[in-house]
Amino acid sequence: MVLLMGLYYFYKNSPKQRSNLCLSFDALAQKKVVPTRVGGTRWVGHVVLAIETFFKAYQAIVSHLGDVVQQMNSPKEAQNKARGYLRLLKRADVIAFIHLLLDVLRPVRNLSLTLQNRKTTLADVHNKADVATSVLRQYQTRFT
Description:
Blueprint: H1 2-12, H2 15-28, H3 43-70, H4 76-89, H5 92-116, H6 122-142
């Protein structure tokens, strides 16, 4: 979560970094997607959206952060932040955890959206709750 939030603010607070990230997207011939905010009133949905956006932008972010680290004219603060984020982004355990988080939160998000819908029936809630519970149980038995 801290990594996703850090990347969001790294690009939100610096128009230069954001525009250079867009140049990385252009160089990779990918659709431009800027990291999104993790928190919010509907935090489950925001976290899922932030993770999905993160994976869509992963290559461009890694490419851009590598460029920031290597540029001598970049501010030291930006270089240090980029170096730290890049180190985390290249760790397999961090990426695996983010994937796990996405796998767990998707059914929870679907349940949450079902509960927020005014036209939802009790049967809909029951089905979504069963799906969410079964996914969570699968991960619980897999990792214990």
